[in-house]
Design a protein that fits this description.
pyrimidine biosynthesis, 281 residues, 8-stranded parallel barrel, 8 strands, 12 helices, TIM Barrel, alpha/beta, Orotidine 5'-phosphate decarboxylase
Length: 281
């Protein structure tokens, strides 16, 4: 299974250097589909998703399809998701599949093979995973990602308010649980250049100082820009010295400009330019 594909951290760094630090979610939310004047049918799902790919895959560094909105349509939706992954990557974008998988043993291995193995039609460049059955339960995904030059983004401090009770609770050595996840990812990434392949999800909605990300040595997927309330201008305060490794993510702020391809591209460029100013060191 081992490939000669470069480490995901290197590939992401190269993509961001070439196209800017922006991840756009492809979230075929029913409200967005309706706003584009489409109905909730598999054909409309395909039109929505592939329009987004056509507009954005040659423009931004990363696209992040949300698996749940494709799964809603059953086999037809999964077929569209396969096409999104293949065509987005062919156009030069990296693809993070936002599936938030988390399980144990052979089941986690099956998920890892489904989304990270070279032989899978659903293989993306990276996968979001949940560590809340224990960071060690992610070993199959972390191992397969290392072997195939792909990445994982581990949920640490998410942007939803419901996550606070668990993620801010303290572990046996009095660290916030979210910090313990960051620390475990840091250990996995130790020594990687320019950064490791295990990223974390840390919402741009956090307060400054909530997490110490200084030793992560990996990418930070930062959802929450726009509709969830986080502002581009707040990123520096939230992430501090870890800012160079931050990959801000947005969906509705760009997709809401559709269905016109030129309008979608213009929205992505504006967001990317705003981020470039905010992230400039």
């Amino acid at each position: 299974m081992t490939t000669t594909r470069p480490n995901f951290g290197q590939r992401l760094a190269d993509a961001v250097a070439a196209r800017g630090a922006l991840c756009v979610g492809i979230d075929p939310h029913p409200a967005l589909i309706q706003a584009w004047g489409l109905d909730e049918s598999p054909g409309s799902l395909e039109r929505f998703a592939m329009t987004a790919v056509e507009a954005l895959a040659g423009e931004v560094a990363v696209l992040k399809p949300q698996s749940a909105f494709f799964e809603l349509y059953g086999a037809a939706g999964i077929a569209v998701l396969e096409r999104v992954i293949v065509e987005a990557r062919a156009a030069g974008a990296l693809v993070i599949l936002d599936a938030k998988r988390g399980d144990i043993g052979s089941t986690m291995t099956a998920y890892a093979n489904a989304y990270l193995a070279d032989t899978s039609p659903l293989a993306a460049d990276a996968l979001t995973v949940s560590p809340y059955l224990g960071y060690g339960s992610l070993a199959p995904a972390i191992g397969i990602a290392e072997q195939t030059g792909r990445g994982v983004f581990v949920l640490a401090r998410t942007s939803n308010p419901e996550g606070q009770e668990l993620q801010k609770s303290r572990d046996a050595v009095s660290r916030p649980v979210a910090q313990s996840i960051v620390d475990a990812a840091s250990d996995t990434n130790a020594g990687a250049e320019p950064m490791g392949y295990v990223g974390v999800v840390a919402g741009a909605t956090m307060k400054p100082g909530e997490l110490d990300l200084s030793k992560l040595n990996g990418p930070i997927l930062a959802p929450g820009i726009g509709a969830q309330g986080a502002m581009v201008q707040s990123l520096r305060g939230v992430f501090g010295p870890a800012l160079p490794n931050v990959l801000p993510a947005t969906a509705r702020e760009v997709l809401g400009s559709g269905p016109g391809i030129d309008d979608l591209r213009s929205a992505a460029r504006r967001t990317r330019d705003d981020l470039a100013t905010a992230l400039a060191v």
